[in-house]
Amino acid sequence: MSARFENQVAIITGGANGLGKTIARRIASEGGRVVIFDQFEDECRKAVEELEERGWPGRYRIVDVTRENAVSSAMQSVVETEGRIDIVVNSAGVVGPTSTPVTEVDADAFDQTIAVNLKGSFLVAKHALIHMAPRNYGRILLIASIAGKEGNAGMSPYSASKAGVIGLVKSIGKEYAETGITINGLAPAVVKTAMIDATDPAQVKYMTDKIPMKRLGTLEEVASLVAWIVSPEASFNTAFTFDLTGGRATY
């Protein structure tokens, strides 16, 4: 499997840190040319330098996934410089309010969580498809969450945003089901990331206690499944959201 992404171009949003960075590294390690989309230039530069130190090509673009013009122009620039887009993994996301009853959720915080997690997924998928459709090939993966299927108490904005991502996957996956483009989602349980480190410990315990394995998932475990979903091998899977939950999901 060491070269299954050879000659493929992969865009990873949120790729400067955490989950996105680990996914970018995994795809690059298997021959992919990675382009990171993120808002934090210093972190982007460092992530690309780490790829290049291993002999893997990498580039980055500063992109706010909530702004359509930014997403559109960044996608176009990748096509102009790299010649194509084969893979898009949208891992840009925010947790939003945690341990917060819905009656205490600030409306602006709700809007921001929806904007990044759901609107961002929509914009990234939309503009990736514009470039993939003429070639009749592509792999799009939107990172959702088990919270989008089951809901997490105290995290209503996040849960609602990720439920929307799952609905988006179901819809657009069916729209492109007769093409060579697949659109899938991934719904992890809680995974050890910097985003989780910034989450209220009581909220993390609540989520971890729901996992039969009684532990957090690892970044490497997520990246391993992602690599298969966005590979040419996963050609008969679309409009589906995969679970990665340590036994939490029972359906």
Report on this model:
With 251 residues, the chain is an alpha/beta fold. The protein has one domain (9-189, 220-241): Rossmann fold, CATH 3.40.50.720. It contains nine helices and seven strands. The chain has helices at residues 18-29, 41-53, 68-82, 107-132, 147-150, 156-175, 194-197, 201-209, 219-229, and strands at residues 9-13, 33-38, 58-62, 87-90, 138-143, 181-188, 241-244. A seven-stranded parallel sheet has the order 3-2-1-4-5-6-7, with helices on both faces. The longest helix is centred in the middle third of the chain and has 26 residues, at 107-132. The mean pLDDT is 95.
Second CATH tier, the architecture: 3-Layer(aba) Sandwich
Distance between the termini: 30 Å
| Helix-strand string | EHEHEHEHEHHEHHHE
Major sheet strand order:
3-2-1-4-5-6-7
Brief sketch in words of this structure:
By secondary structure, the protein is an alpha/beta fold. It contains nine helices and seven strands; from the N terminus they run E-H-E-H-E-H-E-H-E-H-H-E-H-H-H-E.
Write the layout of secondary structure elements.
Layout: E1 9-13, H1 18-29, E2 33-38, H2 41-53, E3 58-62, H3 68-82, E4 87-90, H4 107-132, E5 138-143, H5 147-150, H6 156-175, E6 181-188, H7 194-197, H8 201-209, H9 219-229, E7 241-244
